[in-house]
Amino acid sequence: MVRFFSPHVMLIGSVVLYIIIGAVIFQHLEGENLMKVKKEHMSNIDKFSEAYTDKLWDLAKEKEGEFEKFEDLLAYVKSETTQDFNDYVDTVFWAHRAVRHGYDEDSPTWDFANSVFFTTTMLTSIGYGYVAPSTFGGRLFGVIYCLIGIPLTLVTVANIAKFLSETIFLVHYEIWNKYMEWKRKRKGETDSDPTQPMFADDENEEEILDRVRLVRFPPLVVFSLVFIYGCVAAWVVRYWETWTYVESLYFIFISILTVGFGDIRPSPGNVWLTLAFVLVGVILTTMCMDVVGRMYLKEIHYLGRKLKSNNPFYLLREAKARRRRAAMASLLAQLAKGMIFAHKDYNELARKKSKKKKEKRRGSHVCEFELALKFGAF
């Protein structure tokens, strides 16, 4: 059990540590710069607003007696202060663009919680965008951080989703197996012998299809699980956010599908709970895509093979390939057979040669003995 869970725990721990380290670095790189930029833009806004209001007041006082009607005075003041008003609006616009939502009452800052929220949503490819690095160092680090962190996070999410899908499959298998046992007992049948084959010859098609459904996980169950989770999460989130249920439902599903438009954002005080709901939803969505994708990928491959089998040119190529393979197999068999026979002939020839040599040696010894007797050597 420890060996089974240790790789999963190490993978999750490495991602959590990577997120925390990235959050601390982003907080250091962007935190002080955000406060500095906010002060500069607020100073510009104050300057242009004071200039605009002072000009309005001065013109209204100077030209008060020159116009009989108030509407004429108002039109004159408006025409004279149009450029000042446009400068003021541009200052506010550029301040909002530079600091995003930084001037709201609950504006996000680069504190630890928001930094963790930013790095997590960035690595899961959600990327809401209402908080983003603005310095050169922060942007450069963000690119390098994503190059390493996104593959690591996706592998971890896929690993957890795979574990959940296998767990749900086992639960589904056990439930269906219990149902099949109850069905057999209801029909008065005995439990099947585990040593028997899975599909017996005397089984009809309905029984075989029931066995096949044991190992085929219904996609509707997975989609229903994700949908129910999204509805429940939206119902919970709306209680600590000032959203309607439709807005909460929109935010949850946009987040767990990793779209993340960023038009609706959670308040800084609820970052941790919202992040937990989003991460669980991302894992469930990945599990759903994994289960359904594997199932229909096999069916697509089967359909491709069926389409190929109905193609006459494919049939001709397959027939030629089968003939070539058969000819090659026959040639290899003949070659192997010839090598075996040649080996046998060589062994017999070697035995015959060795026998002849022994006979010659024996004959030479007899001749030498006869010569010795003849000439009186003994």
From TrEMBL:
Pfam families the record matches: Ion_trans_2
Main location: membrane
Cell compartments where the protein resides: Membrane
InterPro entries (UniProt xref): 2pore_dom_K_chnl, K_chnl_dom
Gene Ontology cellular-component annotations: plasma membrane
One of the protein's GO biological processes: stabilization of membrane potential
Domain Potassium channel: 105-165, 222-296
Keywords for the protein's UniProt record, in alphabetical order: Ion channel, Ion transport, Membrane, Transmembrane, Transmembrane helix, Transport
GO molecular function: outward rectifier potassium channel activity; potassium ion leak channel activity
Recorded family membership: Belongs to the two pore domain potassium channel (TC 1.A.1.8) family.
Name of this protein: Potassium channel domain-containing protein
Native organism: Caenorhabditis angaria
